[in-house]
Amino acid sequence: MRIVVLAGGIGGARFLRGLKAAAPDAEVTVVGNTGDDIYLFGLKVCPDLDTVMYTLGGGINEEQGWGRLDETFVVKEELAAYGMEPTWFGLGDRDFATHIVRTQMLDAGYPLSQVTEALCARWEPGVRLLPMTDERVETHVVIEDEGGKRAIHFQEWWVRLRASLPALAITPVGADEAKPAPGVLKAIEEADFVLFPPSNPVVSVGTILSIPGIRDALKAKTVVGVSPIIGGAPVRGMADACLTAIGVETSAAGVASFYGPELVNGWLVAPEDAPHFVSPGLEPMTVRAHPLLMSDPEATRALAKAAVDLALELS
Ligand code: GDP
Ligand code: CA
Q1: CATH number of 289's domain
Q2: Is the pLDDT at 236 greater than 90, yes or no?
Q3: What is the mean pLDDT of the chain?
Q4: Which-ligand-closest: CA of 202?
Q5: Residue nearest to atom 25 of ligand 1 (CA)
Q6: Which atom of ligand 1 is nearest to the CA of 66?
């Protein structure tokens, strides 16, 4: 069985761990979001790729969901002592090594896809991890403060401001001219089906879909998605702020209509959302209820299995 998964960070990585348990023999290709990538202290940081790599490779800080296990922050403190900015992004000492290796390889001319493969040689995530593109794409957010309207990097809005100022627009800068990374379209073409984990629909899955060619390749496939919204709220994080910014209701049905029935064929919603699932225009989508909380390994495995089962049924 060949499966392609479009993944952001925490929601994507946890779902993938369940998928590996549910379908241990499947060949899984992960197309990772790189719109959250940011240069810090001269280093290229790819938060979502690293969250997937560390989670599947056994190096993640479980409680936090991102960053390394047993992390220390000496370098961060030393940089702050020099007055270096920014101080709001948590880079740990162990994590720094990943970004140093990545940046050196990029500077030597390797594309991000090859660099990611090299990093994964250490972590052995058990999936093929591809960035959505090798080109630089950065999600920017338009906000308005005392200084007027301006665009800031997604991480500044998300991490520094904790999405406290409304986003007037969210744009993946550079996406229009970007190409899918080598292997992405082929993996989609050869996949038996494609899964959308409960990742942020706007700044994770939506960003991947903004790379020309990916959405069209998916239309020919059976796609099953898992709602990242349970009972009208994102399970963790502030995904509602992203949905509000693009005028989408924070609900399982809202996210389903955002993707649309021409893209998503099957949609898993939480049992408590199923009775209220009103779906004008979404009739072609098969909606199924299943517990969606990835609270422990068994619940996560069962959720991934439900997604696989629905995809097999529909394909
Ligand atoms: P990020 O890049 O780290 O923000 O992670 P993702 O884009 O992969 O996913 C974040 C989204 O996952 C959050 O906005 C939540 O809505 C969703 N999420 C997190 N944990 C769970 C869970 O246990 N169940 C479901 N259904 N969604 C979850
Ligand atoms: Ca992310």
Answers
A1: 3.40.50.10680
A2: no
A3: 97
A4: 1
A5: 228
A6: 3
Contacts (Cβ under 8 Å, ≥6 apart) of 90: 67, 73, 76
Is 77 inside a domain boundary? no
pTM given for the model:
0.97
Distance from the CA of 201 to the center of ligand 1, in angstroms? 9
User: Does the residue 162 lie in any domain?
Assistant: no
The tens digit of pLDDT for each residue in 118-131 reads 999 999 999 999 99
Q: Give which of 203, 247, 201 is closest to 226, Cα–Cα.
A: 201
Whether the pLDDT of residue 278 is over 90: the answer is no
Check pocket membership of 202 for ligand 1, CB cut-off 6 A.
no
Place of tokens 């690293």: 50
> Looking at this protein, which amino acid is placed at residue 19?
L
Report if residue 166 sits inside a domain: no
For residues 221 and 225, give the distance between their C-alpha atoms in angstroms, rounded to a whole number.
13
170 forms bridges with which residues in the sheet? 141
Query: What domain range includes position 306?
Result: 2-37+121-134+177-314
Assess if residue 76 is contained within a domain.
no
Q: What is the number of domains present in the chain?
A: 1
C-alpha closest to that of 89 among 147, 166, 154: 154
Q: Is 9 in the pocket of ligand 1 (CB under 6 A)?
A: yes
Centre of ligand 2 from the C-alpha of residue 129, in Å: 15
